[in-house]
Design a protein that fits this description.
By secondary structure, this protein is mostly helical. The protein has one domain. The protein is built from four helices and no strands. The longest helix is centred in the last third of the chain and has 25 residues. It is elongated, with a radius of gyration of 14 Å. The termini are far apart.
């Protein structure tokens, strides 16, 4: 996976929080872990005032999606 250009990083940082959240959730749900890691690195490296996002917020999104996916997996196992 290639490193993001400054233009790509600036685009990510220009998104509003709702768009960033939707992208993070989508990447996790679709199993795009590499893209998710690259995306969140940009958000974590940037100051909050410049489009960055806090570690706690990213963790909440991660936990929400992973716990939801694990619940779905457990329900499928119980039904089998």
């Amino acid at each position: 996976m290639k490193e993001l250009s400054e233009i790509e990083k600036n685009w990510i940082l220009s998104l509003d929080l709702e768009q960033k959240t939707m992208l993070m959730e989508s990447m996790l749900k679709e199993g795009q872990v590499g893209y998710y890691m690259q995306f969140t690195k940009v958000l974590l490296d940037a100051p909050l005032g410049n489009g960055g996002v806090s570690t706690d917020y990213i963790k909440k999104i991660f936990d929400k999606i992973i716990n939801n996916e694990n619940s779905k997996s457990n329900e499928k196992t119980k039904q089998s």
